[in-house]
Amino acid sequence: MRSHAVDGGARLRRSRGRVTTCEQEFTELYLESYPFVYNYVRYRMANDSEAEDIVSEAYLLAARSFERFDPSRAKFSTWVITIAINCMRGYWRKQRPTVDLEEVPQVVFSVVGDESQVDDRDEVDMLLGVLDQEERELVLMKYRDGKRNVDIADELGMNQSTVSTKLFKAIGKMRAVREGYGL
Predict the structure, then answer these.
(1) How many Å separate Cα 171 from the centre of its chain?
(2) CA pair distance 6, 11, nearest whole angstrom
(3) C-alpha closest to that of 75 among 44, 29, 119, 34
(4) What 3-state class would DSSP assign to 53?
(5) Contact criterion met (CB below 8 Å) for 103 and 137
(6) What is the pLDDT of residues 79-99, one digit of tens each?
(7) Runs of H (alpha helix) within the chain
């Protein structure tokens, strides 16, 4: 049960059977939930730096609206993850692929499923947005251009097993994002 009172300018909150300031409670919940929230976001982002930015933004937004958090509706970590998901969506919308979008759907269809499952350009943008430039290039060479891994490796001066590993990881990222959003 939550209750707010004003005592010397400090907002008080009843939580876990004791009265604390909102700042104290937020700090406790932050420290308790951070590893879980970070791991959730990191699994879905291309690198640590992007994940840290998203998590920071999510906690900043959570702190700003902490008074609206209702522990009877959800756990704090679940609430912050919901905010982080919205931050990731915004991030992916800003990340525009550097390829011709007319060619993208067939690439995505061959990677994540059949054509009937992808009906939205935003979804295509989001799926390609999780990939870095090198991963996007490898996916396009493989699925749009129909090249074999050995040919991609020769063209890019890479080892064939490196190409295979990077493609596997790129496809895994796209699938994880798609499954994570229930798309």
Answers:
(1) 15
(2) 5
(3) 29
(4) helix
(5) no
(6) 999 999 999 888 877 765 444
(7) 22-44, 48-64, 76-94, 104-112, 121-129, 133-139, 149-156, 160-180
Count Cβ atoms below 10 Å from residue 98 Cβ, excluding itself.
10
Dihedral (CA of 149, 155, 161, 164) sign: negative
Distance CA 80, CA 4 (A): 21
Query: pLDDT digits over 32-86, tens only?
Result: 999 999 999 998 887 889 999 999 999 999 999 998 899 999 999 999 999 999 9
Beta-carbon contacts of residue 132 (< 8 Å; ≥ 6 apart): 46, 47
Judge residue 156's burial from the number of C-beta atoms within 10 Å of its C-beta, 0-12 exposed, 13-18 middle, 19 or more buried: middle
Do 128 and 97 meet the contact criterion of CB atoms below 8 Å apart?
yes
Tokens of 140: 């396009």
